[in-house]
Design goal:
It contains 1 helix and 10 strands. It is α+β, with helices and mostly antiparallel strands. Strands 1, 2, 3, 4, 5, 6, 7, 8, 9 and 10 form a 10-stranded antiparallel sheet that branches.
Length: about 160
């Protein structure tokens, strides 16, 4: 008879330790930069687009940021643009970043070219300035220019 109360006491102790350790793990979960940040791209002249910015970690401590800028759609399809090796500067609130990449590319396909799918590659110099809060809020501005002429400006706001 004395064994049953001992077993019950041990089970209750084990269960309460498990519940306490789970809640502690959730409270101390570290924020990871890499991931998908659904949000809205806004261009003052071209409108808005709902899509995600995707941040991928590189082995060298930098990040690649994949974006889908708002560009004149018409009948064409446009690919995502990847800005490579962006360095994030950590602050108390999160991260600051800026990057300039010459040769950033968007690939477009004319809708009427469904048979051959010949790509048209558009190259820009991309200027990126942004912040990433440790709550998962990502915001940045992106200026795309070609031959020193700003062609498109975008702002993005999203959250992981």
């Amino acid at each position: 008879m004395k064994i049953i109360p001992s077993i019950l006491l041990a089970a209750v102790t084990l269960l309460s330790a498990t519940i306490v350790s789970c809640s502690k793990d959730d409270d101390n979960a570290a924020f990871t930069v890499a991931g998908s940040y659904p949000g809205t791209y806004v261009s003052p002249t071209l409108g808005t687009r709902e899509d995600a910015s995707i941040i991928t970690a590189n082995d060298n401590g930098t990040y690649d940021i994949s974006v889908t800028p708002v560009i004149p759609r018409g009948d064409s399809e446009y690919s995502r643009m990847v800005l490579r090796n962006v360095k994030l500067l950590e602050t108390e609130e999160g991260y600051l970043f800026e990057a300039e990449e010459a040769g950033a590319k968007i690939v477009s396909y004319a809708a009427s070219d469904t048979k051959h799918r010949n790509p048209n590659i558009i190259e820009f110099t991309a200027h990126l300035n942004g912040t990433l809060n440790k709550t998962g809020a990502l915001s940045f501005t992106l200026h795309l220019n070609h031959a020193n002429t700003v062609l498109w400006d975008f702002e993005f706001a999203g959250k992981k």
